[in-house]
Specification:
Structural class: mainly alpha
Number of helices: 4
Helix content: over 70%
Radius of gyration: 15 Å
């Protein structure tokens, strides 16, 4: 399986964001906080967008990407709250896991799946 350049860039961003989330609070200031918010909010959506953009229209991909990102964020936070293990690195790790899975798993062609 060969990864394309957008997938490699997304994996790099995912690993960097996960590493940044492990730093103590207040380290690196506002740039780290902005990256954390953007990654946790849009990381899985970016992976889904890269995956689907050739198969469907950009507007459909955008709506799906935003919905998936917010769903992953909410469900991962709820899961960690339910089991009593909520933490910023924990949420970032679950979001990173979903982002990596969406990025590296092979996608199926649209032909024959929904037609």
């Amino acid at each position: 399986m060969r990864l394309r350049l957008p997938q490699l860039a997304l994996l790099g961003w995912t690993l960097a964001s996960l590493a940044l989330s492990l730093l103590p609070a207040g380290a690196l200031g506002p740039p780290r906080a902005v990256n954390a918010v953007v990654f946790v909010g849009f990381g899985p959506g970016c992976a889904l967008m890269v995956r689907l953009v050739g198969s469907w229209s950009v507007s459909v991909c955008s709506v799906l990407a935003i919905a998936v990102s917010l769903t992953v964020l909410i469900l991962s936070s709820q899961l960690l709250l339910i089991i009593g293990a909520w933490s910023v690195p924990g949420v970032a790790a679950l979001v990173a896991l979903v982002t990596v899975v969406l990025t590296v798993t092979p996608s199926r062609s649209r032909e024959g799946v929904l037609d």
